[in-house]
Specification:
- Helices cover 49% and strands 14% of the residues.
- The chain is globular.
- It starts with 6 loop residues before the first helix and ends with a helix.
- The protein has 13 helices and 10 strands.
- It has a 4-stranded mixed beta sheet with strand order 1-4-5-8.
- The chain binds flavin-adenine dinucleotide (FAD).
- Flavin-adenine dinucleotide binds next to strand 1 and helix 13.
Amino acid sequence: MDLAFTPEERAFSDEVRTFIKNNLPPDIARRVAHDLHLQREDFMRWQQILGRRGWHAYTWPTSQGGPGWTATQRYIFETISAELDCPTIQPFGPRMVGPVIFNFGNEAQKAQHLPGIRDSTVWWCQGYSEPASGSDLASLATRAEDRGDHYLVNGQKIWTSYAHHADWMFCLVRTSRDAKAQQGISFVLIDMKSPGIVVQPIPMLEGTHSFNAVFLTDVKVPKANLVGEEGQGWHYAKFLLEHERVENSNIGFSTFAMRRLHRIASATLHRGRPLIEDPVFRSRVSATEAQLKALEVTTLRALSSMGSGSSPGAGLASALKIRGTEIGQRITELIFEAAGPQSQMLDVAEARGEGNLEGLDASLHGAAPNYFWRRAMSIYGGSNEIQRNIIAKRELGL
Ligand SMILES: Cc1cc2nc3c(=O)[nH]c(=O)nc-3n(C[C@H](O)[C@H](O)[C@H](O)COP(=O)(O)OP(=O)(O)OC[C@H]3O[C@@H](n4cnc5c(N)ncnc54)[C@H](O)[C@@H]3O)c2cc1C
């Protein structure tokens, strides 16, 4: 792949690598290297460093204050970030709501929200799923009643990642029950400090906290926070989900996890030899590596067709999501297998990033929680079964 890079792209790689080496705080890199739970402060510190360099909203065009990078530059940035143990940039602001606001929002919304996303001073969360509306999102029931200058919002969202960190939520609400389910939905921006919002944690088995239920009771949302037209939220939500699914090809994560797999399988002995030299295990690792390379090339193709901020098309986005999550899960399976019985030790402090983080042990202990956590990859952003339905309908006309 490197062979195809132009001299300018190679110079860009050097620039990214130097910047990260000089600016990524070592304590954050160490947590990422061991796949430990990061706090809001960890994410924000790194994202703000990137923001000051103009690289937090790195997929945005220059017209919106982004760097206007090509698909190849974005790919270079993502792979070097993964290689050097940078935290994953939280997608809710720069990858999700940002492009919706600059494509469909009004000038006041752009002025109010885009700077905070670019600089990472504001944390966003995604209020889509509800207890009875996950895959069948169009059935969502959180209702927004028209009260003149504001909506009165009542309902419940669930699985809202990092709502406990969030300053704002982009939210799908039902503004009409008259029309077809998809047409009665609107896309609103809600200040998480609004009276009537309760964020209830959903703790994870291994002691970390990412998920929440969000209860909305008589929450006043100014009409000025409606994005685009009332009743057209489904259209904006679909645009956003297609972006999310390309993001969910997870190249950065898989590259990072593949490195860890090599490290663990080289340090683990099997019949007196490093496991990585076992021909059967080695061939499984190689097959997964080949699939990852093919995915990288396909993702690059999708990104170049997207340009800065447009959509890749539903079928391709779904295919990337399926393949990317299958490969990511396959790698965590191989890590789990390589770590063997040592992965059975769960150290809650370690998982939270508070214990002894040095050496191989933390990676070995993290193998089981990580394996189970990554099962979620084929559920969030729309489950893989739903992605297959989309491909069947949109691409195959079934
Ligand atoms: C880690 C993680 C983070 C998340 N973060 C957020 C977030 O920040 N904000 C947010 O709004 N949501 C979030 N979600 C929720 C996520 O979007 C939903 O879990 C997902 O859409 C599936 O919905 P569900 O859980 O209600 O499952 P269901 O829709 O009840 O599906 C259950 C099972 O049935 C299958 N199924 C359902 N319908 C069909 C069909 N028509 N054809 C074939 N199979 C079908 C599904 O594939 C699945 O296997 C997150 C989820 C996870 C796991």
